[in-house]
Design goal:
171 residues; alpha/beta; six-stranded mixed β-sheet; four-stranded parallel β-sheet; 17 strands; 21% helix
């Protein structure tokens, strides 16, 4: 179950996204966008980590690596916490917000230590990925992942054992 804070759209709003700059400042959104784009393209892991920690306010553990094109949440990156010695795969998106028709939702994303997330994953707001978990490429993480689990797909489901993951096999 995702842990989300729910806020109604302003009365008379076409949808919640039309009022996004009531929930986050335009200047913050533009600044975050510029620095996220810079970090998406830089091959220097230490520069990415510095931007994520010092500019965006994310909590990022030591030896954690973000591949090219990783997209942290533009509006609320400070709600992302990633443990130590993790790998976040190419073109993964980590969201901490959802703007819907009648409401918007916010939720922290917590990624434990020694987690591996494959390429092209989407992590939705309000989830916790436990220590040592492996998320297969192309997955949508819409619920919590237990420590040590090997999961994947859309919808997310168990794929096998950690031994299978280490050997590159799944169901």
């Amino acid at each position: 179950m995702r842990r989300l804070e729910r806020y109604p759209a302003p009365s008379g709003a076409a949808n919640a996204l039309w009022h996004v700059y009531r929930t986050v400042s335009f200047v913050k959104a533009v600044r975050n966008f510029v620095f996220i784009q810079l970090s998406r393209y830089t091959p220097l892991l230490s520069v990415k980590r510095w931007i994520y920690r010092r500019v965006l306010g994310m909590q990022v553990g030591e030896k954690t690596s973000f591949a090219l094109m990783v997209m942290p949440d533009v509006f609320f990156p400070e709600r992302i916490k990633v443990g130590r010695n993790c790998i976040i795969g190419y073109n993964t998106t980590i969201l901490t917000h959802e703007y819907l028709i009648r409401e918007y939702r916010l939720g922290d994303v917590v990624i434990g230590d020694e987690v591996m997330i494959g390429a092209n994953c989407t992590i939705l707001p309000g989830v916790v990925i436990g220590d040592g978990a492996v998320v297969a490429a192309g997955s949508v993480v819409h619920k919590d992942v237990e420590p040590g689990a090997f999961v994947g797909g859309n919808p997310l489901r168990p794929l096998g054992t950690m031994r299978d993951a280490a050997e590159g096999r799944s169901e």
